[in-house]
Design a protein that fits this description.
Blueprint (H helix, E strand, L loop, with lengths): L2 H8 L3 H23 L7 H16 L8 H12 L5 H15 L5 H16 L2 E4 L10 E4 L1 H6 L11 E6 L6 H8 L2 E9 L4 E8 L3 H5 L1
Parallel strand pairs: 1-2
Antiparallel strand pairs: 2-3, 3-5, 4-5
Helix pairs in contact: 2-3, 2-5, 3-4
């Protein structure tokens, strides 16, 4: 068992768990957004570099002070030529999910994006200014990733996703069928085949109907 996983398992501090889980989810989301922005294959070493830079930046934030030891181990693994930091984070995240009785909304977003890509071939990217949208790619706003979830990973505001596709109108039903979120069609441009969809936490479905 790895040092980081052992540390995770033996610490009962709820705040510590929340921060570690949040960091893993944000790191993996950042990696997959970076990967989806290029058509080239991204080798393990390049994936490690992306994760190391992201985690290193996070290590300077005061809120992650309690994760100092784990962050160092992650960075060391990512810099090891034979290391696979993505695999380690995925394994750790899966272990955390098995041990946790309550899956937070940020994890559900991560699961939703993975499902849409693996089952429907809809990749996802962060929306950039003045960038021409790519057909069949789901775009999210960076601000929404950062501010629509609190430090516990619970959703506190609707998350916007933008989608251009001949199947744009069906994405709401696809998302709702997963049971992870309540999807609402905020705006649909039929001529341009562009949809603006809001993701609401599952618990707030009654509020949407109102």
């Amino acid at each position: 068992m790895s040092g980081i996983l052992l540390s995770y398992l033996i610490l009962n501090d709820e705040r510590y768990y929340q921060l570690l889980s949040e960091l893993i989810e944000h790191s993996l989301l950042h990696l997959y957004f970076k990967i989806s922005a290029t058509t080239r294959f991204t080798p393990v070493q390049r994936r490690n570099d992306i994760l190391v830079r992201f985690i290193k930046d996070k290590s300077s934030e005061a809120r992650y002070k309690s994760l100092k030891t784990e962050l160092k181990r992650m960075i060391l693994l990512g810099r090891n030529k034979s290391g696979d930091l993505e695999r380690r984070l995925v394994d750790l995240n899966q272990m955390a999910m098995k041990l946790s009785h309550d899956v937070n909304h940020l994890q559900r977003l991560f699961d939703l994006l993975n499902h849409l890509e693996s089952e429907h071939n809809y990749s996802s990217q962060l929306c950039k200014k003045n960038e021409t949208p790519i057909v069949d790619v789901i775009y999210l706003l960076q601000d929404h990733i950062e501010y629509c979830f609190n430090t516990e990973g619970d959703q506190i505001a609707p998350v916007s996703i933008l989608f251009e596709s001949e199947n744009a109108g069906s994405l709401v039903d696809i998302i709702n069928q997963t049971g992870l979120f309540i999807a609402e069609m905020k705006e649909m441009n039929v001529d341009q085949q562009q949809a603006h969809i809001l993701l609401h936490p599952k618990e707030n479905s009654s509020e949407i109907a109102a």
